[in-house]
Amino acid sequence: MTLNIIKRTAICFSLLTAFSCTDNFDEMNQNPVGATTPDLEQNFNNIKGLIKPAFTRLYISDVTWQYQLQQSLQADGWSGYMTSPNEFGGINNHNYNLNQNWNGFAWDDAYVNIIANLFKVEQRAKGKYDQFYAWSLIIKVATMQRITDMYGPAVYSSFGGEGLATYDSQQQIYTQMFKDLDFAVTDLTARVAQGEVSKFTETDQSNYGGNYSQWVKYANSLRLRLAVRISKVDPALAKTEAEKAVSHSIGVFKINNDLIKIKSPLDLNVIDVMSHVWAGLAMGADMESILGGYDDPRLAKYWEPSTQFPGEYKGVRTGIVYPTPSTYANFSRTGARTKTGEVTWMTTAEVYFLRAEGALRGWNMDGSAKDLYEAGIKASFDQNGVDGAAAYATDNVKKPIDYVDPVSATNNAPAVSKITVAWGTTNEENLEKIITQKWIATYPDGQEAWSEFRRTGYPKLFRITNNKSGGVISTELGVRRLPFPLSEATNNPKGVESGVEVLGGPDNGATRLWWDVNKANF
Amino acid sequence: MKKIFLIFMIVFTAQVSLAQVKNVKGVITDSDGMPLPGASVAVQGGQKGTTTDFDGLYTIEVQKGQSLVFTYVGLETQTIVVGDAATINVKLVQGASNALNEVVVTSLGIKKSKKSLAYAAQELKGEELTRVKDANLINTVAGKIAGVAVTRSSSGAGGTTKVTIRGNSSFVNNQPLYVIDGIPLYNGGAGQPNGTFGDLNGGNKDGGDVVSLINPDDYEGMTVLKGAAASVLYGSQGANGVILLSSKKAKAGAESFNVNSVTTFETAAYLPEFQSDYTSNAGDPRSWGAKQKVEGDKEIKDFFEVGNTQITSMTFTKATEGASTALSYANTNGSGIIPGNHIKKNNFGIRQTSKFFDDKLSVAVTANYVTQTINNRPTNGLYFNPIAGVYSHPRAFSLNDLKTYEVFDPVKNMMQQNYPGFAAVNESNENPYWQINRQKSIDKNNFFTGAIALDYKIAEWFHLTSRYSYNRNESNFQKGMYGSSATSLVHPTGRYINASLIGTQNYADLIALFNTKINDNFSFNGTLGTSINHSRANGLTIDSGIGGGLVLDNIFTLGNFVNNNGNVQTGAEREVQSVFAAATFGYKDYLFLDVAGRNDWSSTLANTDNPGYFYPAVGATAILSEMATMPEFINYGKVRATFAQVGNDIASTITSPTSGIVAGNIVNPPVGPRRGTSLKNELKSELELGTEWRMFNNRLGFELSYYTSDTKNQFLQVPAEPTNPDGYSFYAINAGSISNKGFEVVLFADIVRGEKFNWESKINFSQNRSKVNDIPSESTGGRIVLTDPGSNSYRYSLIEGRPFGVIEGFDFQRDAQGRILVNDDNTLQRTDWKEIGNANPDFMLGWSNTFKLGAFTANILLDGRFGGEVLSLTQAINDFNGVSKATGDARNAGAVNINGVRASDGTPVTSMDPFDYYSNTAGRNGVSSQYIYDATNVSVREVSIGYTFNKTKLPVFQTATVSLIARNLFFIYKDAPFDPNVALSTGEGLQGVDVFGMPSTRSIGLNLNLTF
Lengths: 522, 1012
Prior knowledge:
The structure holds two protein chains of two kinds. By secondary structure, chain A is mainly alpha-helical. Chain A is built from 23 helices and four strands. The termini of chain A are far apart. Chain B has a 22-stranded antiparallel β-barrel. In chain B, strands 10-15-16-13-14 form a five-stranded mixed sheet.
């Protein structure tokens, strides 16, 4: 090194003023412990390495505060699952005073840490190593489905183009997502038929271990989720896509081993950390009312009894006036379900409930609505390791119970959900049951629960009591979307403008998304 | 016969030689032994004459019996008759006007007569750096140089110091360049904290730097070059000013052995005030319980120990004709005021100079090695910081109760943290004694510097100098944290961090120096050179992490890690190649014109339009007192003006973005240039005007400088739109500018100059106004956030049109009459983020006095900062927790008086329950405007009273002095509840705020100095 310097210096000095020796500046200016492109091409690492991070980012599973910003402070609260036991931070989503310093995180993280990577995968793999491209499309759809269901319009087709990106409407995004799934499913299905040895094994951080067939099942199940999501706004397309998913040769999730989950690389559970270590998450009052009312065995899996009221599961209502910061500090905190480092992306139970709703809507879902509904309950019971699904599924007595706030009676409220578990008669009644059971089964994924609540109005949830949105967001309807992130408003204002144009309403939390049509469920 | 012939021959030869001209050489020095370059030597009555070179050396041809006249402006002329000696060394003593004879070390180590300088340069003699010694040399500069702001780190002995010269002019780095004997010093460190909470990875750490490691006794003085003009020859690195240090040189023909021993005792001063009347309720971490005597100020203060620092240094020097040696060793041993905090430092130094080939070639070789170990270096913020628990612990428990910091858990067969009052510890609440004993840290630094300097005298007027130096700084941080610490910081099985950073710098230059008198009227002094500076920093961090943990509990070694997620390697390299030229034209020794220019090529600008950039400087000086007849009382008068630019490169790797690999994942480079754009250098332009006067027999003098500077094309990072295809989080751009203007006054007076009693006084005054302009539109809300608040109520920002470094926070929302708006639920309305203070002083004043009475010498330095604000989140959190005196007083009074109004119906609200009030307004995320304090403070910075023993009565010593010394003795005025001269970070962020920083210390001790 020293010799080199002396040599170079000597040469440079001999040339003195006229020239300088700047030839190796580029090499010098590179991160010496980084990775260059040629090095990474070995063993497809330049592709695999870009896909792998998505496993910890889709639902952030390693850095607790990031998950808190990604989803916990928004959908996990609005879904009625859980809430902050104190008035966290003053400007608080839970009382509809939307905190934009939090609400852009999910968007920012998805684009920077997933979509930018997958864009590079497309450039490196498309047409050459299509199995990787196919795989990246499934992950892309999983990511973007969450993003568009939060914000509505987003950057999809124009990502990676020249200049600042413009936004697609949600309808365009859904259409494109179906197409991307088509490519992925077709490509991987053909490879399954050919018996190709999986190239995903080392990279796949899920329980699938790189199995192509399982990824096709996940893609089909995602397609079914997307189809049901648009069933009110575009019933024809919804039916086609849903039937395509269910009738596919590899099909959708059917047994609990099909569900997709990942393990936190740090073996920690961010929800557990927030609830127990930070004392920042308590059980939602809706959980107490609904699961408590049904005497649901999953309640004890999801939550721990309150230390303040031993033996009782006590929830906290979302969006209330907190008498003191510590009033609800010792209400129920999270239980065994969120004790492991596992994060479930999509459950088999959800797929049964999606099929049940499809059947209810008259689609060919390979089963009757009632059977699929009960199969969903059974799948969820099994997944949580509790017994008694059969009796539970046919219980036509137990109903959600009234909520009693033992420390602040102003928050007391009669149960808003009035249904039993057992299959009923009308479509509307049965839809409410399907969605309510799906809501229980999907815990703790508040994002899906919040989306379905917006689409169907189910399960019926307690209203907030302390609406601080300044009249923007109605207490009755709740938050319908997240405003576009500050990061985009500041750094890509034209893009946001194009997004507002296709949003069809003001860029606030009250504007309904494309699939969130204001009309009856049937 | 033979003998006679021989005698004849000798006599004849002698006669011949007597008649012949001979060469006389020698060195001309001032009364302190400093060589005088440019002094005139002439043969009386003859034509011959010469001037001395840079080392004060001359050679002249002269005949025996003739007289040589030695002159130097401002010194008394000496005439010496040439005898048989071939060497005539001359010491010129001060004449009537001593301002003209001062020699200062300027850029690249070149000595210049101070009178010819076109810019402000202020010197400190070695004595001023060692009189009231501090473990960090730089701390002794505070108050002694106009325009230099010195802010200590709150990390105690061995901590870094922030030095800002003429205000902040950069968004990313404002530290000056340190230069030793003309060679830039690598001053890298492991970074500075910038989190309001603290750092999850071991707490808010002071990553150390190199300049804090050096031994003050190795240097005979310091020169501060304040402006851009002064530092143009150093290029980029000198843009924020240059601090030059000159090694002690052995005096010819002498040998000496010097021992210096300093022992000081430090006590915690300026703690917050605590209540002692209210306890805490069971299970409540806050102390808002029943009235009951609890521990108060005294007991809390008793947590802190009396610190002790011992610095012993030895210097051995010897010089013979043509060679000199200086050896030094220093040992620093100290214990801090927080239990468990210790520092050990050893400095070794050697300097050897030799002359060859008829003294034409001189070679100087220096090497220094420092090793420093700090145990439990104090942190700040909420994490890993015992101070938080000491102040905040619920008062139902005393610190004494907390001393049982662990209890045996039979289930796990191991000790577990015990924090009475807490059901479960969390990141902000851990038992302080646990933190001290079970989260121990060690900071190690090893620094080596070696340099070789060659100087070849080709002709009297032409030298060629070349230097090479190698700097290597190794820093290492280790922390072993036991399980049962807060699980958000430490895995239940424990956590181990071992972070190393190795920084190296290779510097080489080649410089041609010209110094000649063209004729009697015109002189020329020129420099032409080229240099290369290559630096590299490689980091290796292993961290078992918060989530991963250790396989076997509390075994702290890499082989015991569960996973690889926290192990990171970093690296960066930078090379700057330069050519430069400078010239000073002198006319009659009273008019000087300076021109200089430099071109740098920096590797950090690879892949840009041009990696090279040029910048010039021009200056003029006139010695008015020599040009015209002045009134009798004026001894010296000078005016000067200069304009200069300095270019500055950007951070490494930015223009060559490469992916990183962390735990097997490819990580996108977080920052890069926007597609289709390029980056360029920053550019600082500065205009400086000054004047210097001395009068009344040099007993009164002043220097005045005015400057205005503007630094544009600032390199900064703005958030990228998240939908950018490169996955960048930030774009690197050139935007924004900072302007600074201000003036500096240095005033000195020999107030009393008597046989027995002397009183010298010196005042340093400076004022700086900064303004931030052209904040790019991409920056959220028209500001660059230097310290992100997290969810706390302190944000440190650069805001368009405002001075550098605005403190932002929350204020009460008030009605038109200024009344606080109160909600129906008794909460108080607050504003959004707003400016609540500014961290910069309006002006600074240092006043030093030296009194001499017989053998006694007393020094006292008063140091004042006026204006600016600081925020105390410590006080806010203490209020929230109900442990502060304010909350005790409020409870005793029954209510807090407020000027409020109910927002719903307009009813006045005049008082509030203290619990409600403080729950609403206090805490780390409260209404921070209530915790803003005036940063103005005046302190007795240094005091020393020394006694010098009578030389003639000493047995073996040449000199012996003993002195009583004190540092930070007390504040004459202070508003803030902490010492505003201490910062949580010596980086750019986290200024003007206190979050459980270690209290400032008062230090008193003894200094013994012996020379054999």
